[in-house]
Structure formats: C-alpha cells, structure tokens
Design goal:
33% of the residues lie in helices and 16% in strands. The chain has 219 residues and is an alpha/beta fold. The protein has a single domain, classed as Rossmann fold. A 7-stranded mixed beta sheet has the order 3-4-2-1-5-6-7, sandwiched between helices. Helix 6 links the parallel strand 5 and strand 6.
Length: 219
Amino acid sequence: MSHYTEPNWMRSALITIDIQNDNSLPGSKAEVPGTAAILPTMKQLVEAYRRAKQPIIHVIRLYKADGSNVDLCRREIVENGFHFVVPNTTGADLVSEIKPADSPVLNGDLLLNGQFQQLGEYDWVMYKPRWGAFYQTYLEEFLVQKGIDTLIFAGCNFPNCPRTSMYEASERDFKVVMTVDAISGIYNKGIEEIISIGVSAIKSSDVLKNLNAIHGSIE
C-alpha cells in the first residue's frame, strides 16, 4: 500500500450506501440479495464511528412516484406502478439497525433539494440522484469542510452504487476503504479491480481495530 493511499483513520468518515427499508429488509419490495445479512456488521460499524465521534454519512436514493427523477434504466417500471424508496415513506427510510436512536423522520423535500439532514450528533443523510454519491451532490464540499480525507464504504449492491461511489471518491483524491463484509453483492473480480485503483479492501474487524488504535477501546 502506498503512503498516498494508506487510510488516515483520524480523518475518516463512514459512508453507508442505500441501506433503506425497501432495499434491505427480508421480503421487501426491492430487496437486494445479501443485504439483510450484512446489517449486523453495519450496525457494529456505525456504532463504532459514533463512539469514535467521527462522521457518518448515509447516502440514499429517493424515487418520486411519477418517475421524473428516476434513472432511465428504471424509469419505465416506476411509471408502470412499481414504486419503491418513495420520498417520505417508511420504505425510503434507513433501516433501524443503522439509524440513530430518536432521530427525526427523513425529510424528502429537504433531501431532494440537495441538502444534508442531520439525524444525530455524528450522523447525516443525503440524497444522490444517480449511482455515484458525488454526482450532482455537495458531498465533496461537505467532507472537505469537516477535514475528512479518508472514506470507509459500506452498503447495498456493490456493482452499482458502492462501486461507482468509490471510483468517484478515488478520482477526487480521497483515500478509500471498502469494507468487504459490509457490502452486499461483492464478487472477487470486483475486489481485484477496486484494489487496482488504490482502494484498501479490508474486513470490518480491521476497521474496528484501527479505530481502537487511535481512540482506545470503543467496542
């Protein structure tokens, strides 16, 4: 690992991707296989980052019922009546395992307008209009303002949004970590490809160990 890409844990943020009720819960209308199985691991990660007092950004999708903001590849099914992650519905909300206790209901209008909604002392949620978390969003500016240079990724469906977001982070010169046991849909060739652009592919236990090393025991 180059010293240029080595994670800087003291200036890291945890990024969760699309861990919403409609995508993640068993039997949900748009369930992504394997996502429910990683929820306990994701819970460990978000709780560790809260104890470490470091930022967590929950990146989500919101699809208007009329399909007007939906990607072209999914717009027709939404227009034909398959509605999921609709703003201001339970299905669009974060799963309970990663949502802070006593956090407010997600404000669809605020999020669709590109603003960040704070859910807890260390948690924020933001909307992304397409696969990548940086595309037409203020994520880069938000992270720079907080002095973050390292991003730890976990989330739903590696081939689509997590992978795109990691590539976008890399091309913006963030140090990037893929938590391999906290992302659904991972496959070996994908891991090889992401490592080839300087991403660190490690287990959640290694993330926790590195946080412990700089903050003391947070488990």
